Fold this protein.
Amino acid sequence: MRTIILIFGISFLILSCQQTTKEQAPSVEVSGIEISPENLVNVEFDVHGMTCDGCANTVKTSMLSVNGTKDASASFTDSIAVVSFDKTKASVEQIAEAIESKGYEVVDYTVIEEKTKDQ
């Protein structure tokens, strides 16, 4: 009985992870986005639920799907996702919603760098 439960659990994890290979990874074009320094915001999200590179890629792709994002990365081993975006076109809340819409939990976030006109 334990073997059946273990097999079921492993199968569920593999299927729920939605791991993609590099050949299958969706392509998101973000080049050419120009953001003035005073509008550039870099945020690090604490994201729970990522268990593999496929999960990290899904989180990255979800952040890049928000209009105004310039760059994004995610690490399942560190449970973090980092994004750079134009604060006049996107918000922390919109990006967090995009991540959570894929089934991951945004626990917290930190603004890494925000430039103002005075800097």
